[in-house]
Structures are given as C-alpha cells and as structure tokens.
Design brief:
single chain; 215 residues; alpha/beta; Rossmann fold; 8-stranded mixed β-sheet; two-stranded antiparallel ribbon; 35% helix; 24% strand; globular
C-alpha cells in the first residue's frame, strides 16, 4: 500500500475484502498522517475498505485538516472551505475506487472536520465515529442528517474538550436528525482500549444501517 494523490489529497487506500462492510474514511489528529489510523481501521472493521487522507494544512510542520487560531479556537472560514475540499476528495475517491459512501472515523482534529462535514455536506458520509470531537461551527447551517448513525466518544478527563462542549455537539447533531450515541469514557484526550472496544461494537451493531446508507 503506497501513498497516492487524488483531488489534492495525499492518501492511502486499502481495498476491502468484505463487500458487505461499509468503507471507512480515516481522519487523523494533529501531527498524524495517512498511515496513522490504518491499523485502527483494520481493528475496528476487519475486511472494510480503508480510505485515509493526510490533512493538507501544516501547523508548525504538523499536518491538520484545517487551520486554528489557538487551541480550541477554529478558523471557521478555513474549516468550511476545507470541509468542502474533503467532501470533493471523498467524491473523487468513490469514483476512482468504486466505493460506497464511507463512515468517517476521526480522532481529535480529524473528528472535528468529520463533524463539520456531517453538518455542511451531509451527503458525503453514511455515518461517523467521532473520537474526542468538539463543536466545529458556532453557527452551522440547517442540516438534514435523517437518522445517520453517529458515535461520539468523549473523555471524562479530557483537558482539551470541555464536557459541556461535547454535550452541545451531541445535541446539535441529534437536532439535525442524526441517531447519536454519546458515551463519556474514563479517559483523557488520548484513545484507550475502551474507546476501541466501544467503537468496534458500535460499528458491528449498526452495520446494516450504515451499509444501507452507504449504498
């Protein structure tokens, strides 16, 4: 598996071996790259096709998916633009690789752009696993998520994402029609084994719904 470029995104693509598994769109955190979450994707959904882009923005040499003004303070104009570019990349990848609509699996910065993409370009994703996400947009446009399954896994000891912020994100996605499961883990900002276990079980439980929405 080598890094390729499509629609301006360096990425890796791993074809699936299970045609009934919805593909995963793997979105890394700050400082990660297109290789970071491949192992996680394989563990969460064995046999699923994996699409893993590298964030196109650099912050002190560290890849991200959009600019921020400070920790927890997003450049929302850039976030909106980058979300549109990510949606364009997904559309191009679907055409190039013959993929159904993917389920986003995003961590931190990757989870935040996944949340923004759900709200700004809901047709792009069949659902999402948001690991340590926070509210991406102060004033999002009306969105129709029409029952899309979303798992939000927050950390009770997370120093970056306040508990009320994560709760507001869950409420906002639910208000847009998403079928949201919000679980607060006994963890910090980093991922734990409990996160991986919960995400894998959620993906397995919602596989039928996600596959139907991915078609």
């Amino acid at each position: 598996m080598t890094t390729q470029t499509l629609a301006g995104f360096h990425h890796r693509f791993e074809p699936g071996t299970d045609a009934s598994a919805p593909p995963l769109l793997l979105l890394h955190g700050t400082g990660g790259d297109e290789t970071d979450l491949i192992g996680l994707g394989r563990a969460l959904a064995p046999g699923a096709a994996l699409l893993s882009p590298r964030g196109p923005v650099l912050e002190n040499g560290m890849p991200r998916f959009f600019r921020r003004l400070a920790e927890g303070v997003f450049d929302e104009a850039d976030l909106r633009r980058r979300s549109g570019e990510l949606a364009g990349f997904v559309a191009a990848a679907r055409a190039a690789y013959g993929l159904a609509a993917p389920v986003a699996v995003g961590f931190s910065n990757g989870a935040n752009i996944a949340a923004a993409t759900l709200l700004l370009h809901p047709e792009t994703l069949a659902g999402a696993v948001l690991l340590r996400a926070m509210v991406p947009l102060a004033d999002p446009p009306p969105a129709d998520l029409a029952g899309r399954p979303v798992l939000l896994l927050s950390g009770a000891l997370d120093p970056i994402v306040p508990a009320d912020n994560a709760a507001r994100l869950a409420a906002g996605l639910a208000a847009a029609g998403a079928a949201v499961t919000h679980t607060v883990q006994p963890a910090s900002h980093g991922l734990s084994q409990a996160d991986l276990t919960a995400a894998a079980a959620w993906l397995a439980r919602h596989r039928g719904t996600l596959t139907a929405r991915a078609a």
